[in-house]
Amino acid sequence: MTEPHRPSPAEQRAMGEDIAAGDAPTATIPSVRVGDTRTLPAVDAAETTELTAAPGAPPRPEPRSLPEVATRISTQPGPDLAGTTTLPRPSPGGPERRRVTTTLRATDYWAMLGAAAAALATAGLLYTQLTPFTGLLGFAVLSYLLFLGVYALLVSLDESGPAVPDRVAAALAATIAYVLLAGLALVIVFTLVRGYEPLLFPNFLTQDMSLAGPLQGLEVGGILHGIAGTLIEIAIALAITVPLGILCAVFLNELPGAFSRFVRTIVEAMTALPSIVAGLFIYATAIMLLGLDLSGFAASLAITVMMLPIVIRAADVVIRLVPGTLREASLALGASQWRTVWHVTLPTARSGLTTAVILGTARGIGETSPVLITAGFTTNLNLNPLEGPMVSLPLLAFRLIASPEPAMIARGFGAAFTLMVLVLVLFVLARIIGGRGPGRLSRRQEHRRVRRSRRDAARMARRAAQRANAYALPSDAPAAEPPR
Amino acid sequence: MAATVTAPLPPEDGGGPGGPDDPGGTVQPPPAEGEDAPRRVKASIGPDDHVFRLLARAGGFTVLAVMSLVGVFLTYQAWQALQVAGWSFFTTSEWNPDSGVFGIAAVLTGTVLIALVAVVIAVPLAVGTALYISEYAPRGLRRTLVSLVDLMAAVPSVVYGIWGLFLLQPELLVVGPQGDGLPRWLATYAGWIPIFRVDGFDPRDPIAAGTALTSSTFIAGIVVAMMVTPIACSVMREVFSQAPAGEREGAYALGATKWGMIRTVVLPFGTGGIIGGTMLGLGRALGETIGVYLIISPVFEIQTHILENGANSVSALIALRYGEASPFAISALMAAGLALFLMTLAVNFVASSIIARSRSGAASDA
Q1: Do residues A276 and A369 lie in contact, with contact meaning Cβ atoms separated by under 8 Å?
Q2: How distant is the Cα of B206 from the closest Cα of chain A, in angstroms?
Q3: CB 3.0 to 4.6 Å from B296: which of A8, A162, B274, B311, for a disulfide?
Q4: CB of B304 within 8 Å of any CB in chain A?
Q5: What are the b/e assignments for B31-44, b being 16+ CB within 10 Å?
Q6: Are B220 and B188 in contact (CB under 8 A)?
Q7: CB B42, CB B20: distance < 8 Å
Q8: Could you give the C-alpha distances from A255 to A100, A110, B139, in angstroms and in order?
Q9: Chain A contacts of B210, Cβ < 8 Å?
Q10: Given the DSSP bridges, would you call strands B101-102 and B95-96 parallel, antiparallel or unpaired?
Q11: Residues near B155 by beta carbon (within 8 Å), at least 6 away in sequence
Q12: What's the CATH number where B313 sits?
């Protein structure tokens, strides 16, 4: 414990007098408290030794050079007060209250509320009485600007200097964030509100559009073909993307060198590929050159070309986050490289990889433009990806809302609703799975791991026992029981 | 790597100290006497690792092949059309490949304008949101906000397009027969600036039809901004949150307010992230198709009045015209696609090199 401030002699004198005059109660501390040097709050080792040395000896010649506590004690005569400690007296107003550490004060709230009220009132006055302004957006913008002005004014009454721009910047940042989120909420709520209507008809999810003419109401026809098409296309795309993408990411991390650097550069460049160009590429190669139909498979290929760089890149980042110590531990135990990858690297990165794949899936599911070019359009349910056109949900939504018929537009919104729900579900799934850092396990995974390592331990013990038996003399004790 | 260290063993050392009943025993090489020769370290990999490495290399090679194929094939196909069009490909506005008159002057201008509008709207939103999430938001709220921004990036573009077409344009921006809203206000009060001028529409004329303000570059740009903001925002947030704690505390210790700290520590530290995130958003905005396609009404002339009805972009052109099945028309579209790809590629490349070179550096995955 360091002493930042050594009292000057005059101050010490004053202290000494203070002790002599006013601090008499120290001598009458009940014996219960006496001698418990551990409760000394601010005395370091040197001072404590001096305290214990103090009782028998006469008062030290230079008590004033000691810090306050020691001074106080060594001036108390009498042998039975050895190691007397002055405890801080309880503060006068009962027990000490916990300090509030929040950075917000009541005046902040009031300034904000007052500014908001003033701004709304002023803008309302301007809009209804004083000026010919109209329009909701203008009202919102004007009242917000007024709010900022009034808020700055109110804060400047309380605070000074740099506090005013500080408050205004905080308010501005919060507003921008919530405006953005309001935009997101608007998009989602709008899609859900406009799109729920066709979903009230049970046929909407169980029929395709083959029976519904252009003027047919919502009671016939649905988007089953779109749902099936989406699932088939994304399944094929995932079947190619996931193994290839993760293999490539493993390659980038496990075999570093000039070649993998080159691959990484190309992959990064390809994330810039506009999705419509991916579709055009498949159209020109698979369809025009190789003579494939406009089909679900072609659409899957287009989605694959688009998704592959995204998944590789995300997986690359996640695998790079696996702690090197884990890998090295595995290698040091003698595991081969692929065993390390298979049993250490990939399981550690599992949640991150899952998140990468799911987010890539969400992107792939929602992508319209490559599908628009390569999948064709049909009103019938088509479960064969290799033959004939196949629609997916985004394509269906895109085509249906371009129709002039209200029922078709409603179906388009229904398709968008379904798509949005699908994406939301995938997203929530990704958050639940990907919430953990690399190597963190869920309870079930932990249990499984514990069970597995118990099994391993038992197996090793059995082997050891067998070996011991094989080398042991036959007259020895019977085979040792494998320890549990 | 399964590296086995083979230390030179003296020949008289037989089975090792362990013996047969201690197979896991370590073999201790006797200390070298006299000279101190460097150990020979030899990595020998087993057959399984050979297979693994072969497989991994094959995976990498496949990806490389697919990706290169896209680029090479795109260039090869585009070459045919580019040879016919020559340099006029970059100066012609019309798009009639079958009569040999085609060029990307109009669509490229449109693409860039839409992307610029999107970026101008997106950047303040992204910076503000990123600052709020990394600096101001309560700790418990932070993760939720990050998730929401990520969700915003995952919303399908067709949903944004539908939102723009059915809600944003008719209900918020160009309301009613006279088209009340922000575009009209801009045309009225900022019409003297060339890009805000609207030809054939007098905003002070009470019976002027609002349809002149629909389907414009501006509205398409707003829709694209919605898609671009979360991408830019997540890059910026990541960089902001890496601003070193020591410097933050230093700023506070010198008496800075929170805003003072942000201005002197976080923003200078995150400059690379802001620029890189913006460029990344720009790259995405250039390639956006469906949201633009749903909003605009395509025109094939250089349209620099962003509020005026009619706009175009390269990707919308491809979506519009791919149905013309003649191989040459496809080749011409390929050329347009190639131009677009090269542009996004350049933008992304600049973005990632800016991010990598900034102080916040390589740790961010942008």
Answers
A1: yes
A2: 14
A3: B311
A4: no
A5: eeeeeeeeeeeeee
A6: no
A7: no
A8: 55, 61, 39
A9: none
A10: antiparallel
A11: A184, A187, A188, A366, A420, A423, B227
A12: 1.10.3720.10
d(CA B227, CA A124): 33
State how far the alpha carbon of A207 is from the alpha carbons of A60, A198, A379, A390, A419, in Å: 102, 12, 10, 15, 17
| DSSP structural state of residue B69 | H
pLDDT digit string (tens) for chain B, length 366 residues: 444 444 444 444 433 343 344 444 455 555 555 667 888 777 777 888 889 999 999 999 999 998 888 888 889 888 888 888 888 888 888 888 888 888 888 899 999 999 999 999 999 999 999 999 999 998 888 888 988 988 888 899 999 999 999 988 888 888 777 777 788 888 888 888 888 888 777 777 777 777 788 888 999 999 999 999 998 998 899 889 888 999 999 999 999 999 999 999 999 998 888 988 898 889 889 988 888 999 888 888 888 888 888 888 999 998 888 877 688 888 888 899 999 999 998 988 888 888 777 766 544 443
The CA distance from B106 to B104, in Å, is 5
Q: Would you call B338 exposed, middle or buried from its count of C-beta atoms within 10 A (0-12, 13-18, 19+)?
A: buried
In a domain? residue B119: yes
Nearest beta carbon to residue B258 from set A166, A180, A273? A166
**Do the Cβ atoms of B150 and A173 come within 8 Å?**
no
Using CB atoms and an 8 Å cut-off, which of residues 124-183 of chain A contact chain B? 134-135, 137-138, 162-163, 165-166, 169-170, 172-177, 179-181, 183
Q: How far apart are the first and last CA of chain B?
A: 30
Residue A227 parent element (H or E):
helix A224-254
Give kind and range of the element (H or E) at residue B102.
strand B101-102
Q: Give the up-direction half-sphere exposure of residue B296: CA atoms within 13 A in the CB hemisphere.
A: 35
Query: Which contiguous run of DSSP H or E holds residue B96?
Result: strand B95-96
- B69 in a structural domain: no
* Nearest-by-CA chain A residue for B229: A180
- Residue B26 placed within a domain: no
Instruction: Tell me, yes or no, whether B89 lies in a domain.
Output: no
Domain residue limits at B321 = 99-153+215-361
CA-nearest of A360, A373, A324 to A345 is A324
* Residues of chain A contacting residue B20, judged by C-beta atoms under 8 Å apart: 471
The nearest alpha carbon in chain B to A312 belongs to B63
Please report residues of A whose CB lies closer than 8 A to that of B266: none
Q: Give the A window 190-219 contacts with B, CB below 8 Å.
A: 190-191, 194
Chain B residue closest in CA terms to A183? B226
Which of A338, A340, A399, A424 would best serve as a mutation to test chain B binding (most B beta carbons within 10 A)?
A338
Enumerate the residues of chain B whose CB falls inside 8 A of the CB of residue A190. 163, 166-167
Give the domains, in start order, of chain A with CATH numbers: 9-81 (no CATH), 107-198 (no CATH), 224-440 (1.10.3720.10)
Interface touch A268/B352, C-beta < 8 Å = yes
Distance from CA of A42 to the nearest CA of B (A): 27
Query: Cβ(B129)–Cβ(A176) under 8 Å?
Result: yes
Among the partner-chain residues B259, B260, B319, the one whose CB lies closest to the CB of A369 is B319
Q: Which of residues 227-256 of B touch A (CB under 8 A)?
A: 229, 233, 256
Coil/strand/helix, residue B151: helix
Q: Could you tell me the two tokens for B98? A: 């079958």
Structural domain count of chain B = 1
Residue B152: closest CA among chain A residues belongs to which residue?
Answer: A184
- Comparing CA positions, the residue from A253, A250, A369, A236 lying closest to residue A297 is A236
Among candidates B53, B151, B172 on the partner chain, residue whose Cβ is nearest the Cβ of A255: B53
